[in-house]
Amino acid sequence: MKFKKIKKTLLIVGAFSLTVALTACHDEKKAQNEAQKTLKIEEAVVKSDSLDDATQIIDIRHPDKFIGWENEKKLSGHIAKAVDFPVEWISYEANKENLNIELHRRHIDKDKKTVLYSDGDVKQEELDKFVSLGFHDIHVLEGGINEYAKDSRKLERLAGYDMFVSPQWVEDLSNGKKPQGYNGEKYKIVEISLPSEKDEYKNGHIKGAINMNSDEINHKAGPRTVQEYEGIPMEEQLKFWGFPEDEKIKAILENAGIDKDTMVVLYGTGNATTAANRAALVMDYAGVKNIKLVNGGKELWKLEKRPLDKEVVSIEPVDFGAELPQNPSIVFDYEKEKKLTNDKNAVIASVRSFDEYIGKMSGYTYIDKAGDIKNARFAYAGSNPYAMEDYRNIDNTMFNYNICADRWKKWGITPDKTVSFHCGTGWRAAETYYIAKAMGWDDIGVYVGGWYQWIKMPDSEDKEKGLPKDAPESKPEEYFYK
């Protein structure tokens, strides 16, 4: 009996001690959080020499500077190993849990020592915004990247960053200024809208922009349900959802005032970012030599509260100046795709939702079969067949290109191979094509026929449903909330 009483007493004392310890720990953490909430900028400053491999570095500048556009000091790029998280994003997304997801997507750990940097010194209000997210050991870089680069420290950038222009760049261009990289050549700004967005352009567009409907420039649209294909000859079915005929592409471009030497600046409406990338692919294939995509498109333009114009721009038709196509190698046909499925030096990159990739769904009302192309490797995409969250930031700009490359590498999608990007009909694949191209990848193309064409060919082979035996991950690193 005495032993039981002692044991009971010890248990009570132990429980009490644990409670005290946990309470103390909680109070200490609470005190730390309170201290962080009142962190003064002068107390958070660290010098460039203090940055080491254990330090988490966050670039809080506009996305265009992170990828490589010059700042006022003519510096291009970001600090090596830094991760992008522009301070504006905290204002764009009101839901703190969604911001936490965005941090997690970038493998940003709020418990690690973290250093924020801008071009110059980080402002108090900028530090406060990150403190409010719950960072426990946060600092700011003295003098920012301008000071950091004075000692010839390494900066990194996206090799082809100039393919993706910012809204500010386009606004300067449309107002007669000469933004970085513009040499006075003739240009056309083009808004790509979806067929359902009939009044989008009329209700406001970027100054000087003309409008193109995605169904006109991007493909030869087909029936939208499987039942409607009954009775249509296979030869005719195979023409649907591919590029328009070369003659039609040429006529569309000429009537838009675009020749092979016109610099074309493309942007999509809020729902047409992928459509804008597809239009770029069509123009690229045709032979337009200088194509730029507005990073963030019309969605970011509106977030930044930039002016929209309602004047319909007059167009003077031109001669394209060459026969089409001038650049056919970027589009892979069925025969090439079939060969690549058995080529050890090639990779079939499936830019589709995970459920499409593993064969749970076809993803389209006009494709009845679920599955994927033989030996296809998962290349990420989004939450459904019309989404691309894996490649978009909060502000609709391109997702961190280093993380994109790391995800691809897991699945064997690397620049030393011939890479064929595909999806259902080649729209999502076009978006990843331009990211890979901007990374400097050379031997790449888009299988425009995609899963739609593949299943209609009598000698095509499919991959087994489910995950391949050598899949590097059983569940992709995807985070959806929009």
Q: How many discrete domains?
A: 3
CATH class of the largest domain: Alpha Beta
Annotated CATH topology of the largest domain: Oxidized Rhodanese, domain 1
Mean pLDDT, nearest integer? 93
Q: What is the global morphology?
A: globular
Number of helices: 18
What's the CATH architecture name of the largest domain?
Answer: 3-Layer(aba) Sandwich
The largest β sheet comes out as: 5 strands, parallel
Determine the fraction of residues in helical runs and give it as a percent range. 25-40%
- Total number of β-strand segments? 17
Identify the strand order in the major beta sheet: 1-6-5-2-4
Termini separation comes to 63 Å
At the fourth level of CATH, the homologous superfamily of the largest domain is Rhodanese-like domain
- CA-based gyration radius: 26 Å
Topology:
Blueprint: H1 2-37, H2 41-44, E1 45-46, E2 56-59, H3 63-67, E3 78-79, E4 83-84, H4 88-92, H5 96-105, E5 114-117, H6 124-131, E6 138-141, H7 144-148, E7 155-156, E8 164-165, H8 167-174, E9 187-193, E10 209-213, H9 214-217, H10 234-237, H11 246-255, E11 263-268, H12 273-286, E12 290-294, H13 297-303, E13 331-332, H14 334-340, E14 346-350, H15 354-357, E15 376-378, H16 401-410, E16 418-422, H17 427-438, E17 444-447, H18 450-454
Helix pairs in contact: 12-17
